Each structure stands twice: as structure tokens, then as C-alpha cells.
Amino acid sequence: MPDTGRPYLSMAVLCEKVLQEPDGVPSLVRIVDRVIINTVPPTTISSQLGTQTSSTISLTLALMFKAGAARGQKALTIRLSRPSGLRLPETTLPLLFEGDDDRGINIFLPFVLGIQEMGIYWFDLDLDGELVGRIPLRIVNQQVSVSTPPILG
Fold first, then answer.
1. Where are the beta strands (DSSP E) in the chain?
2. Is 38 helix (H, G, I), strand (E, B) or coil?
């Protein structure tokens, strides 16, 4: 297979956190592609008040690139789209590839995501304007019932 001169994406996942081991090797904890948000069904009072439930989740975007024949600086752009297709502000990071073909760059980017829609959120990864990967994150709503305790006396 001919080398294109571009770096290779060797891993792209979402996880809860990344541990840096003493020998420098990362350990990913709880790889995630689906999150269940527990919500309480609206009551008559909360419906009348217009109360909305919103949630946030904390995750880490873990990426690994290998240089291949690539040398020099590249721009990684991360674009997040909600299930409705609305794009959130993008993040661009400079990456510097140098040295051997098998050397690379690890990126561990913790973030907090405000959940306003259920469905699939997409993380698009562009390297110098070219799509190199997409990561889906499905958010599922699960309504939990809350029973009202009996009134005694």
C-alpha cells in the first residue's frame, strides 16, 4: 500500500477518562458510545411552570495518530454536530509530526457536553481540511418513575 504522506488515525474513541501510567502508556477507562440519561416524567406542576430538564456529561476524546510519511505541522479540526444537524463551535489543534514512521501523537481532550437533544451526536475529525474519522455518541432518554410516598397521619 503506497504511503500518502498523511498521518494515520490509529484510534478515535470517547471514554470516561484516561490514566497516564508511570511508564508513559495511557489506559482508557470505560470506552463510551452510548449514554443513558435518566429523567423523571414531567408532573402537572412542572409542565405548567415550563420546567425543562437538561443534563451534562463529562467525557474524554482520545485520539492517536501515527506519522507514516507525514512530517511537519498539520491542523486537526474537531467538529461536533447535534442530532438535529446543528453544528457546535469547532476546535482546531496544531499537530507536529516528526521522526520515525511509527511515532505519533496522542490527544486526550476532556470535555463537558450539555445535552439538549436525544439521538446521535457526531464528532467529525478533519486533518488539514480532509475528513479522517467520525465518532458517534448516542444519547438515550430513559424515563424513571418516581413514586410519591404515602402521607401518614
1. 8-20, 26-32, 34-39, 55-66, 72-81, 91-97, 104-115, 119-127, 130-143
2. strand
What is the value of pTM for the model shown? 0.80
Strands 130-143 and 34-39: parallel
Q: 8-39+52-140, superfamily in CATH?
A: Immunoglobulins (2.60.40.10)
User: pLDDT tens digits for the chain (153 residues)?
Assistant: 555 678 899 999 999 999 998 998 999 999 999 999 887 776 554 455 444 456 899 999 999 999 888 889 999 999 999 999 999 999 999 999 887 767 889 999 999 999 989 999 999 999 999 999 999 999 998 887 766 666 776
